[in-house]
Amino acid sequence: MKLFLQREEFTKNSTIGKLYIDNEFFCYVLEDCDRGLDQSMSALEIKARKIFGVTAIATGEYKVICSMSARMKRLLPEVLGVTGFTGIRIHRGNYASDSLGCLIVGMRKAYDSVFDSTIAETALMRKLHGVKDITLVIKR
Fold first, then answer.
1. Domain containing 42: what range?
2. What domain count does the chain have?
3. CA atoms within 13 A of residue 111's CA, in its CB half-sphere
4. What value, to the nearest 5°, has the Cα angle with vertex 49 and ends 48 and 51?
5. What is the CATH number of the domain that holds 77?
6. What tens digit of pLDDT does each residue of 83-138 get?
7. pTM for this structure?
8. What is the distance between the alpha carbons of residues 135 and 65, in angstroms, rounded to a whole number?
9. Is 42 exposed, middle or buried (0-12, 13-18, 19+ CB in 10 A)?
10. Can you tell me the distance from the alpha carbon of 65 to that of 67, in angstroms, rounded to the nearest whole number?
């Protein structure tokens, strides 16, 4: 299964994009501020640009698995192999402050926020249930 995130709206506090599943629009995604990180950058370059807790992960292609989140205490998609970041998940929330680098899903969007995020997270988990091969591509 292919998840594709097209980042579209950029503010000093957040990034909002559209998430597509197998080329079909699924929901909106809220992330921290896009600081121009790209997967081709070295760990040193990423570290130089990253501000902890308020920086979106690098654009690129990632493997995703569904695993138990120790912090959230539920099964969630985990984005693997993100240079300079650990524990990146796709989960519910409303504001960039809920992110810490994670991707926040929502059915509706507003300035620096998404809403109906529990609905979006539940629907996403239903789509991903039992899927073994999940790829996430993020583009700016």
1. 2-139
2. 1
3. 2
4. 105
5. 2.40.440
6. 999 999 999 999 999 999 999 999 999 999 999 999 999 999 999 999 999 999 99
7. 0.96
8. 9
9. exposed
10. 6
